[in-house]
Amino acid sequence: MAKVMTINSGSSTVKFKLYEMPEEKVLCSGNCERIGEKTGIFTFKWGDQKEVDDKIVFPTHGEAAQKVIATIKEKGIIKDFSEIEAIGHRIVQGGKYFSESALFTEENEKLIESLIPLAPLHNAAHLACYRAFKEVLPDTPAIAVFDTAYHQSMEEEDYLFAIPYELSEKYSIRRYGAHGTSHQYLAQECKKYLGKNKDPKIITCHIGSGASITATRNYKCVATSMGLTPLGGIMMGTRTGDMDPSVFNYLVQVTGQSAEEVYQMLNKKSGLLGVSQISNDSRDVYAAFEAGDPRAIRTIKLFNRRIADYIGQYYVRLGGCDILVWSAGIGENEPRTRRDVCRLLHDSLGVEIDEKLNETIHGTEAVISTKKSKIKVVVIPTDEEVMIARDALRIATSLKEGKK
Ligand code: ADP
User: Fold this and answer.
1) pLDDT for 375
2) CA of residue 363 to ligand 1 center, whole Å
3) Fewest C-beta atoms under 10 Å: which of 26, 39, 63, 361?
4) In this predicted structure, what is the pLDDT of residue 404?
């Protein structure tokens, strides 16, 4: 038995979970929010208990790390820090360097630092958080688990953009994708539905506020929708997804805004929010849709069609599809999106779901396709943390065995 901690940090948050492995039992979890602001929020859950402190102050990630570790000990969840075998840190951008999870060494830390320009908000925060936990737990192996690693198996034709090749080479410009840990988890969870299938073809739809679709063959990623950054691919809560790149230049010209301002608008004010002018939350847009608001109707139709387009593209890329997976906030909880996209796939791909059953599925695993459907359709709640814990334990264990 071993205890493994997972850390998912952002510029102002640190989410954590402590697992008992290999049982994958969550011993405690929580969140440090509003780091760097006047007051923070600390949430800690263990067993069936929960505590929230909204008077706490977290000037930096360092204070957040100290609070997390101290609370775990204070509540008697561990007696000694040495019980924690490994810490797995989620890292958004691993660039071309990491096709799998890796131990934090000085060299790997430098590589992650060199990728900050590709993920300015994320990688800098991840490193601040890694360093903060290293101060508190200097002897515990720390493992970096990359959102991009799963997508490194793509072929050049799938990851290259059609810009002058020397620029792609010089600046490492390519499709890196994101949500890789989630897509890999979902693909592995499909094994139980695929029986002895020797060449399984899987399309996973991670549709949350950020959203991406991945094509997996034989449990390896062959294509994914997000691009150099998470701005590419399908339409999202506030991001455009793919569009003609000339829109960018034209907007700079006609609005008089700077390139940076337009870029921020494409990231933060577009997608569901921008098209509907109502909200970035699909629940609000659907409420307006039901009330007959034409802006919401337009938005939902656009959103669904982009998802269906990508599924069609990946069907061709894979040469078929055995299983289509819905996951993340919208994929797990919004039957209308699943229903409407599957209807769009009916005539061409023979997808058919049990619409009555579909309506009852909110955040639980279920097969929603009918027996007649040419593709099995399932809802699977994603679990990125458990993948991080598995990888962290695997690498820490091999490190320990290597040292013996
Ligand atoms: P992210 O991790 O990218 O922030 P999530 O996967 O948490 O996003 O998804 C958030 C989105 O999922 C929300 O904006 C909302 O549109 C949708 N969502 C979450 N819960 C529900 C629910 N119970 N019913 C319908 N939609 C939901």
Assistant:
1) 98
2) 10
3) 39
4) 64
DSSP state of 29: E
Spatial contact of 44 and 51, defined as CB atoms under 8 Å apart: yes
Q: Beta 211-217 vs 220-224: how paired, if at all?
A: antiparallel
From the alpha carbon of 328, which atom of ligand 1 is closest?
6
Q: How many CB atoms lie within 10 A of CB 60?
A: 12
Contacts of 327 (CB under 8 A, 6+ apart): 182, 186, 204, 205, 206, 207, 379, 380, 381, 382
What residues form DSSP beta bridges with 327? 206
Give yes or no for residue 12 having a pLDDT over 90. no
State the DSSP string of 313-334: HHHHHHTS-SEEEEEHHHHHH-
Contact between 93 and 124 (Cβ < 8 Å): no
Ligand 1, pocket-test mutation among 330, 334, 339, 340, most atoms within 8 A of CB: 330
Residue 262 is classified by DSSP as H
Look at residue 11 in the predicted model and tell me its pLDDT.
79
Alpha carbon of 28 to those of 4, 33, 282: distances in Å? 11, 17, 30
Measured in Å, residue 285 CA sits from the centre of ligand 1 at 12
pTM of the model: 0.94
